[in-house]
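agent> Task received from the user: take the single chain below, predict its 3D structure, and emit structure tokens. No templates, no multimer pairing.
agent> Plan: (1) validate residues, (2) run structure prediction, (3) serialize to tokens, (4) report one or two observations.
agent> Step 1 OK, no nonstandard residues flagged.
tool_call: predict_structure(input=
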Amino acid sequence: MDYNSTRKPLILPEYGRHIHKMVDYAKTIEDRNERTRCAHSIVSVMGNLFPHLRDVSDFKHKLWDHIAIMSDFELDIDYPYEPPRPDNFSAKPDPVPYNDFKIHYRHYGRLIEQMILKAIDMEEGELKSYFVSLIANHMRKSLINWNKDHANDERIKIDMETLSGGKLSPTIKEIRLLDNRDHHNPKGGRRRNFSRKKQ
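)
tool_result: status=success, residues=199
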């Protein structure tokens, strides 16, 4: 019996073994022009396997790259595109740069710290007070997820003062602003209650 486990491993399994056999056959053709014609036929068959990708940009280019890869870069033909080189696949990728900023409280995350820095630069007024209450609301949600026993107003006030370097000292009213279902937004509109009444 001819089992898959004893056969040559497929380089690109998505094309199946028959396409790989076609590529292997094309490598055995001695005439260069005939090899090129055979390769064009193989690429046409490969394209038929993925008709939904015909309109994708550079689809043909990718097919020719794949046939070069399946031939182990040994198919000597006239490629319509610049074929890929083996060293393109053996080279190590560039190292991914990591952010060097330090998060003071990981349970709040970087976003909360950025919001606090934004609030520091805002002019004093109702809009800033409302923004501070939004930050406090997010901080309470984060604390509840982390440890709900510590999600109190005093803890939020202390943490915001610490993260802002003492430049933001929210009042209890600002911290509890979004807890009031009937509070007014800074533009003067009243928040609507969309909950349905029981019939």
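agent> Step 4: summary for the user.
The CA atoms of residues 76 and 189 lie 72 Å apart.
agent> Done.
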